[in-house]
Amino acid sequence: MNLFGVGRNTAKTFRPRKNTPVGAKGLQLKRHIDATLGQGNLVDAVKLPPGEDLQEWLAVNTVDFYNAISVLYSTLAEFCTERNCEVMSAGSKYEYLWADGVKYKKPVRLSAPEYVDKLFDWIEDQIDDPSVFPGQFGEPFPPNFMDVVRTIFKRLFRVYAHIYHSHFKQVCSLGEEAHLNTCFKHFIFFVRVSWQHGSIQLAGMSSALCHLVHYVFMLRLKRILPLYSHLGPDAVLW
Fold it and tell me: What is the model's pLDDT at position 218?
């Protein structure tokens, strides 16, 4: 199944990829990311390269992660509807309210597609604003840049959480399971490494992260176990 052409609503919901920020320097960092990912080396792909600027590294990766989840979600648009997903949530324990500090100053309950659409609009506004994400190498980052990046990552995590909890069956039927798992693994590796040097904090996200990682493990286990049914109940899989 074509990842970029699934579903009757894909053309309406698909968003063009955002360009890599920080000019030529950003493209150089993007090539480094693609090269290490192409070798299957997630550990090296998420590490800040020696001698590189942390803010430039975060800017390039933030746009990259947004592009990845935007494409993934667009393939699920016909399933993630106001009727099917009345609330933006990840199971009964985690419900996500929307606020942007401008039009929505107080958190409000939205359906999942409404939430994601407003989130993607908000992220694109940040990325397209050169005072937040500089378009050229050498241009200064704003004092609140780290706060903006933290908020983006926290909210992108919510999209992954919703997809796994509400649309994993559709993901599998579309043949996207491996791609989703790789994107999520890359995302989590990056968050953990960035958290270690303080650029992205896990505060307010760690409980949901642990819950989701466990949930993803159980989903994958349910799909793997039937493959080993012929070994009998005493088989050791790990």
Answer: 58
